[in-house]
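User: Let's play a game. I give you a shape written as tokens, and you guess the letters that built it. Ready? Here's round one.
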């Protein structure tokens, strides 16, 4: 596992940062190696007629912003239990909705005071186990809305590990302990170090009376690979296993879509013309963006996209370095959260999203991440083609 962990560290995921003392005795994250600590607006001045480039932006994100960004993805803003369409052919879906509604009521109840005035709560902990596209994220988001977004923290597994990397472990515990509910979407087991880290984080939060809710990440291939297996989750979180209630969500992918949508790359001229003079559009050479991502901590990728409505990339090619690929996965997740169309102009042998990562990567330990990124990027690239058509 040394090689895997090294790749994660090189990608800037799960880094442990040295903290420097600040006023009041608190600690602030020290600067990441090679990461500029500039404001989000600190970018190379725009050149008339030239689209803004993501590679020119060096965001610096205060801790309060990192916490405030722990919200459901934009495209799930309207998700509620009432809008989840349970399939009568799979009764477990309706049962899960009913149970989560009960959990929301329990979490929202005022916590009882303990003997010494602290919060005393037997907090619920639920884990939704199901295949690809059965609506687990919709249900998790609905739970957060039912409890209240001010009282909830919502993020993917990677966002929480990035948060620990940016703030430090104890500061993350203290910040999340102010919430009544912490939701973890797409819990991952492909890195032993991160799994232990998250298990410890969840244990400390549960001990403080914070309710927990998690879903799995699934590999959208054959049915046998589609289920994450609750047994694996419970085994890896060890001491927390007894606290989690497993809610099985059966069903088929309600979107009935292909695993990866392969969009043929666009001509470079068409990509440049589509973003020329377009407000909120960015234009980068693919290699320039990959290099820039290595200089920005992944916890800042969300801020990197502030004000961005369309992303255009030229010279897209197969990524052969795993650390660069993992950083790209995180960026695709943040683009998908915001529904940002992506225009891709390829180079060399690039023939669509399936050729973005090497075959070795797609068979390796991080294959779930890569397949998720391909599925999401395919959808965003289709939106990008619509942008290009509209501007032609």
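Assistant: Ready! My guess for every position:
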């Amino acid at each position: 596992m040394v090689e895997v962990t090294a790749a994660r560290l090189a990608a800037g995921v799960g880094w442990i940062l040295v903290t420097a003392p600040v006023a009041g005795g608190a600690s602030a994250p020290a600067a990441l190696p090679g990461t500029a600590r500039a404001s989000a607006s600190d970018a190379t001045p725009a050149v008339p007629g030239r689209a803004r480039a993501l590679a020119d932006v060096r965001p610096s994100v205060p801790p309060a912003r990192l916490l405030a960004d722990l919200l459901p993805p934009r495209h799930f803003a309207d998700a509620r239990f009432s809008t989840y369409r349970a399939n009568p052919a799979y009764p477990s879906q309706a049962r899960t909705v009913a149970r989560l509604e009960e959990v929301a009521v329990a979490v929202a109840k005022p916590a009882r005071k303990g003997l010494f005035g602290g919060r005393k709560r037997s907090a619920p902990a639920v884990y939704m186990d199901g295949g690809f596209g059965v609506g687990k994220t919709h249900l998790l988001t609905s739970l957060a809305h039912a409890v209240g977004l001010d009282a909830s923290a919502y993020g993917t597994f990677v966002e929480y590990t990035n948060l620990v990397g940016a703030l430090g472990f104890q500061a993350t515990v203290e910040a999340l302990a102010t919430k009544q509910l912490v939701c973890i979407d797409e819990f991952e087991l492909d890195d032993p170090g991160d799994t232990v880290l998250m298990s410890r984080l969840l244990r400390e939060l549960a001990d403080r009376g914070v309710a927990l809710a998690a879903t799995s990440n699934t590999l959208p291939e054959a049915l046998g690979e589609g289920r994450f297996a609750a047994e694996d989750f419970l085994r890896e979180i060890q001491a927390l296993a007894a606290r989690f209630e497993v809610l099985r969500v059966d069903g088929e992918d309600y979107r009935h879509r292909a695993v990866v949508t392969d969009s043929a790359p666009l001509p470079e001229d068409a990509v440049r013309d589509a973003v020329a003079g377009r407000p909120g559009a960015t234009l980068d050479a693919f290699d320039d963006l990959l290099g820039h991502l290595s200089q920005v901590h992944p916890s800042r990728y969300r801020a990197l996209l502030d004000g961005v409505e369309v992303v255009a990339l030229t010279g897209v090619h197969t990524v052969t370095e795993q650390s660069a690929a993992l950083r790209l996965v995180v960026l695709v997740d943040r683009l998908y959260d915001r529904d940002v169309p992506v225009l891709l102009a390829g180079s060399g042998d690039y023939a669509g999203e399936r050729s973005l990562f090497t075959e070795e990567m797609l068979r390796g330990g991080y294959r779930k991440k890569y397949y998720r990124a391909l599925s999401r990027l395919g959808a965003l690239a289709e939106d990008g083609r619509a942008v290009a058509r509209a501007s032609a």
